[in-house]
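Next up, sample data.

:::
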Amino acid sequence: MSSQVHQPPQPSQAQRTAEAHAAFTGALQSVGSNLDADLRARAANLHENATALSKQEADLKRATNDLARQNDQWQKVADQAREGLKEIGDIQNWAELIERDLLIVEETIKLADDEKKENNNAQDEDDEDDGQAAEFEDGSGTVATANDD
């Protein structure tokens, strides 16, 4: 018997090329799938974040509008308080003017009362002088007493 080892038939060049092509294509698909899965996960994450950011943006706009309205309300309160303080200042000035005028009137009345008292005292003194005997000389050298009563 002859000692020949039975060898399997050798694939043809075309078959080997097809197998290499299939292996290369499979490897590319595997690498593409890995990269594609990562990119798809990132894209999904971006879309989720975009949705969350849009919601946050809407919330921020609403909160900003609320703050603007509240700011306007506080501004009105501050303006009213400022006007109130201005009126208080005006009232204080007015009160000071009235107080000064009242002091002038009081002093005028006091002076008038003092003058009236002086006039009354002078009148009383005149009345007292009128009630006493007045002495005078008549042309003969005699002193006579006259009483108006």
